[in-house]
């Protein structure tokens, strides 16, 4: 259709110097490739090449000849999956993975639960102070993770914290927040504080997109607001819940800056607290980039498997719902 | 009585006027939602309120007076921070502004042109290109940052401004948002009309499509700005010269040293307050213009 219109314009001998239809068409065909050139180059340099290099490194190791002194004494040799099996049987990496899973089991449900509750409250009638509270709850999004961890870190310090001050005045026991099990609560709280507002906005935005007539019909049928929330609102924002869930899982698996920031304040955050911290320690603390690369590749594969598995499950679920 | 009962008879905002809505209810407040939201707001504002007060305390007051009681040392804290290592704090702030400003600008440009190409043209491999770019979202940053560092070191670019700036220019999320926005804001008829008038594809993009995409691109820019400003991992890995540190990394090293010299704690706290102010100010200004629909990728088309 479009080409037909163009043809009529590019007639030979037309009064204007329009390009011929074939050149326009060719240009239109090649244009997207030109437009995508910067992204492609950047992707190749800063995504594909590093990933390929990490995979290559993970399959190699250093062989030391003699005392390992002088040039040529250290050479890179093929190691196969040796580094990967080492990493998979490394108790530090596994412990880190378990800690992150425990941490994620707190952060994701609590953060998204709060985000959903706040979004539903914002969306309800007659609520007061909605603009102010919406802004206040979204505000931590603007605070860098490092600064958030730093602020909460001080609030967890018994000497500085107002909570400890109040508990002490009331003669109540003071929990240890930077040690043992309390550390999970402390770290989860930082992530929940930082992420609830963003997820709330995502859910609230899709709640706002539901037409008012839907509620009208339900009200005429005598549905209570709670029923409307549970049976209409939540199912209708299911797709954004899936989206927020997906991003929260990825962010949780990648936790790094918060425990790293709390580390100077307590002795109970080790340099290998999360798998990514261990990878960083291997690469820069120990200078063993081959093990670090193997750990990195394993985490990347685990992330991909988990997130695609989740997306597939969510997709088949929504298809089932649609089929009903 | 809880709010649900109130709501039952109350008309929803924006419902059709003139329909029977039950007995008139004058400005009843939905108590449960309002209180829940207020509690959430208090929780979210608490650390910010604390840092505001803690920054006014001198080193000794920090550990001795009640936390929510203002102190007397704010001016001293400021001048200490200013004097610390010849004002390196301001260097860090400047670096952050540079990384976030230039990085977000370049990133928005690349996102705009890529998103436009992916939205407007039908070409072979379009979905493949898009999916590969999106897979970048799933890559844990450490997985990328360590080999990126090693490659940068080989290219003699490690520990340079470029090493923090360049890897962040391509933002998969920015491309995703730009594609959605271009599809919604640039009608294909307009592109077609430009072609019939003999404009080149590049001219159509810069003169016709780009202005239409501006509101969406502002969102992409702000999103990237916040992301780069808040970034910690990449500079943490790339940089060793603290003159090039962004503010997040600067504060972190200050805190690390503070663990041994508690006198530095007041500097860390004052520094954290000052580091949050520009972003909160930016946030308050932009939230009026910022299309939150776009942030979530939910553009109605």
From TrEMBL, chain A:
SUPFAM superfamilies: MetI-like. Pfam families: BPD_transp_1. GO terms for biological process: transmembrane transport. Keywords: Cell membrane, Membrane, Transmembrane, Transmembrane helix, Transport. Gene3D superfamilies: MetI-like. The chain crosses the membrane at residues 33-56, 100-123, 135-157, 183-204, 236-256, 289-311. Its main location: membrane. Residues 97-310 form the ABC transmembrane type-1 domain. Signal peptide: none annotated. The keyword Membrane applies. PROSITE patterns: ABC_TM1. The keyword Transport applies. It is a multi-pass membrane protein. One of its GO terms (cellular component) is plasma membrane. PANTHER family: BLL4140 PROTEIN, DIACETYLCHITOBIOSE UPTAKE SYSTEM PERMEASE PROTEIN DASB. Belongs to the binding-protein-dependent transport system permease family. This is Sugar ABC transporter permease. It comes from Streptomyces phaeolivaceus.
Automatic annotation (TrEMBL), chain B:
Residues 1-21 are annotated as: Disordered. GO terms for biological process: transmembrane transport. Pfam families: BPD_transp_1 (PF00528). Coiled coil: none annotated. Residues 93-286 form the ABC transmembrane type-1 domain. It is found in: Cell membrane. It comes from the Bacteria. Residues 9-21 have a biased composition (Low complexity). PANTHER family: ABC TRANSPORTER PERMEASE PROTEIN MG189-RELATED, ABC TRANSPORTER PERMEASE PROTEIN MG189-RELATED-RELATED. This is Carbohydrate ABC transporter permease. It comes from Streptomyces phaeolivaceus.
């Amino acid at each position: 259709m479009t080409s037909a219109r163009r043809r009529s314009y590019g007639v030979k001998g037309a009064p204007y110097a329009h390009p011929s239809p074939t050149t326009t068409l060719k240009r239109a065909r090649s244009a997207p490739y030109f437009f995508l050139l910067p992204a492609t180059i950047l992707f190749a340099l800063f995504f594909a090449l590093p990933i390929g290099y990490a995979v290559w490194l993970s399959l190699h190791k250093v062989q030391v000849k003699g005392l390992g002194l002088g040039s040529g004494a250290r050479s890179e040799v093929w190691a196969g999956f040796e580094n990967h099996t080492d990493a998979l049987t490394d108790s530090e990496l596994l412990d880190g993975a378990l800690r992150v899973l425990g941490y994620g089991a707190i952060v994701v449900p609590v953060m998204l639960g709060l985000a959903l509750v706040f979004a539903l409250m914002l969306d309800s009638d007659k609520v007061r102070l909605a603009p102010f509270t919406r802004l206040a709850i979204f505000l931590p999004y603007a605070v860098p993770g490092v600064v958030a961890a730093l602020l909460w870190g001080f609030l967890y310090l018994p000497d500085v914290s107002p909570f400890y001050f109040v508990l002490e005045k009331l003669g109540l026991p003071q929990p240890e927040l930077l040690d043992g099990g309390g550390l999970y609560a402390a770290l989860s709280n930082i992530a929940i504080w930082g992420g609830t507002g963003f997820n709330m906005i995502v859910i609230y935005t899709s709640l706002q997109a539901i037409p008012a007539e839907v509620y009208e019909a339900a009200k005429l049928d005598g549905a209570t607001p709670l029923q409307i929330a549970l049976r209409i609102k939540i199912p209708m924002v299911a797709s954004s819940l899936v989206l927020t869930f997906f991003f929260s899982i990825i962010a949780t698996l990648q936790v790094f800056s918060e425990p790293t920031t709390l580390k100077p304040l307590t002795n109970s955050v080790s340099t290998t607290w999360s798998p990514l911290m261990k990878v960083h320690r291997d690469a820069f603390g120990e200078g063993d980039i081959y093990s670090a690369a193997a750990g990195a590749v394993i985490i990347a594969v685990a992330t991909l498997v988990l997130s695609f598995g989740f997306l597939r499950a969510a997709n088949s679920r929504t298809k089932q719902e649609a089929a009903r | 009585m809880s709010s649900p009962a109130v709501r039952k008879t109350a008309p929803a905002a924006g419902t059709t006027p003139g329909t029977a809505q039950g007995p008139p209810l004058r400005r009843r407040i939905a108590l449960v939602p309002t209180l829940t939201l207020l509690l959430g707001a208090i929780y979210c504002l608490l650390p910010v309120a604390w840092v505001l007060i803690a920054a006014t305390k001198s080193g000794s007051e920090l550990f001795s007076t009640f936390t929510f009681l203002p102190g007397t040392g704010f001016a001293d804290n400021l001048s200490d921070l200013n004097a610390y290592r010849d004002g390196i704090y301001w260097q860090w702030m400047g670096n952050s502004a540079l990384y976030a400003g230039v990085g977000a600008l370049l990133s928005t440009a690349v996102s705009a042109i890529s998103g436009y190409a992916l939205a407007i043209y039908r070409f072979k491999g379009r979905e493949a290109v898009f999916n590969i770019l999106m897979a970048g979202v799933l890559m844990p940053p450490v997985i990328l940052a360590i080999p990126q560092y090693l490659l940068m070191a080989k290219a003699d670019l490690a520990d340079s401004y470029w090493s923090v700036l360049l890897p962040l220019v391509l933002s998969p999320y920015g491309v995703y948002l730009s594609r959605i926005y271009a599809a919604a804001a640039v009608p294909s008829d307009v592109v077609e009309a430009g072609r019939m008038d003999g404009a080149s594809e590049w001219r159509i993009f810069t003169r016709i499509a780009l202005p239409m995409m501006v509101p969406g691109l502002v969102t992409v820019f702000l999103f990237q700005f916040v992301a780069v400003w808040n970034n910690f991992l990449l500079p943490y890995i790339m940089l060793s010269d603290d003159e090039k540190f962004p503010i997040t990394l600067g504060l972190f090293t200050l805190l690390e040293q503070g663990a041994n010299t508690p006198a530095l704690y007041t500097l860390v706290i004052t520094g954290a307050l000052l580091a949050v102010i520009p972003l909160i100010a930016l946030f308050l200004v932009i939230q009026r213009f910022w299309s939150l629909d776009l942030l979530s990728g939910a553009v109605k088309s």
